[in-house]
């Protein structure tokens, strides 16, 4: 198995694990965005909402726990203490769990869904 195939398998497994973890605790409107054509920083951006700070923290914790069960550790986690917006960075996959007002304000789905376009020739 080549290295690229192994990375793809790990990312696919992490996406499935993330979806399962979010579904288990009834995340609101989870969205999985393929951003490979937009950035080299990550391949996938996952955005989901929780109904309260406790729910947001629980969703992020469940993602972390299920990933750990698969042997996948995050590069970093931010925002756990407050629970308005928790970011879990797995490198190729970055998970954002937010309260609905925060999600609406920052509108990451729209920001990262911008179509790549070429400038018109003069």
State the strand order across the main sheet: 1-2-5-4-3
CATH class: Alpha Beta
Mean pLDDT: 89
CATH architecture: 2-Layer Sandwich
**What is the alpha-carbon Rg in Å?**
15 Å
The structure class reads alpha+beta
Say which CATH homologous superfamily is assigned. Answer: Beta Polymerase, domain 2
Number of helices: 4
Tally of structural domains: 1
What low-confidence regions span 5 or more consecutive residues with pLDDT below 50? none
CATH topology: Beta Polymerase, domain 2
Tell me the span between the first and last alpha carbons: 47 Å
State the order of secondary-structure elements, H for helix, E for strand. HEEHEEEHH
Helix fraction by DSSP (H/I, runs of at least 4): 40-55%
Form type: globular
Major sheet, described briefly? 5 strands, mixed
Strand content: 15-25%
For the secondary structure, the number of strands is 5
Quick description:
The chain has helices spanning 3-24, 53-69, 100-106, 108-112, and strands at 28-34, 44-49, 76-78, 85-89, 93-98. The chain has 122 residues and is of the alpha+beta class.
Describe this structure in words.
The chain is an alpha+beta fold. It has one domain: Beta Polymerase, domain 2 (2-Layer Sandwich). It is 42% helix and 22% strand. Strands 1-2-5-4-3 form a five-stranded mixed sheet. A hairpin with a 3-residue loop joins strand 4 and strand 5. The longest helix is centred in the N-terminal third of the chain and has 22 residues. The chain is globular.
């Amino acid at each position: 198995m080549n290295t690229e195939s192994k990375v793809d398998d790990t990312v696919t497994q992490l996406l499935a694990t993330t979806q399962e973890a979010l579904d288990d605790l009834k995340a609101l409107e989870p969205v999985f965005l393929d951003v490979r054509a937009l950035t080299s920083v990550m391949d996938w951006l996952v955005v989901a909402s929780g109904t309260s700070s406790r729910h947001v923290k629980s969703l992020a914790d469940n993602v972390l726990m299920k990933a750990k069960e698969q042997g996948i550790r995050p590069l970093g986690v931010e925002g756990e203490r407050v629970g308005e917006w928790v970011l879990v960075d797995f490198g190729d996959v970055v998970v954002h769990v937010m309260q609905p007002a925060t999600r609406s304000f920052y509108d990451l789905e729209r920001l990262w869904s911008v179509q790549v376009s070429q400038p018109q020739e003069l």
